[in-house]
Amino acid sequence: MQAHHAGADEALMLDPHGFVATCNSTNFFIVRKGQVWAPTTKYQMPGITRANVLRLCREQGITARELDFSLTAVYGAEEAFVTGTFAGLIPVISVDGRAVGRGARGPVTERLQECYATLMDECVVRGRAALRD
């Protein structure tokens, strides 16, 4: 309700210990010092798109960590993004009215968006080829 009243597209949800857990319909990530941080899956569904992004990080040599982190870490992040089945990978430009990083899509997010788009294109080609066989 707070996100709706604030005019936000998504809401961050915290776990019972006050750590960032997830969003209401997407999985949340931040980038700090070039590392991708994802909340642990203790209090969220481990999404397929989330798993694909973590795999892409490994394949691209981007350090990705699944850990508990606070809103303070989010406020100090260089970048943030969300993932979801329909959304793919979308940059987050502000949280609680505070700009994340420069308040625009960052280079790690952009790189992962490009890698994710390539992965989806490859999946489509494989799917179409399987239909022809």
Automatic annotation (TrEMBL):
It holds the Pfam family Aminotran_4. InterPro entries: Aminotrans_IV, Aminotransferase-like, BCAT-like_C, Class-IV_PLP-Dep_Aminotrnsfr. Its cofactor is pyridoxal 5'-phosphate. GO terms for biological process: amino acid biosynthetic process; carboxylic acid biosynthetic process. Keywords: Aminotransferase, Pyridoxal phosphate, Transferase. GO terms for molecular function: transaminase activity. Belongs to the class-IV pyridoxal-phosphate-dependent aminotransferase family. This is Aminotransferase class IV. The lineage of its organism: Eukaryota, Viridiplantae, Chlorophyta, core chlorophytes, Chlorophyceae.
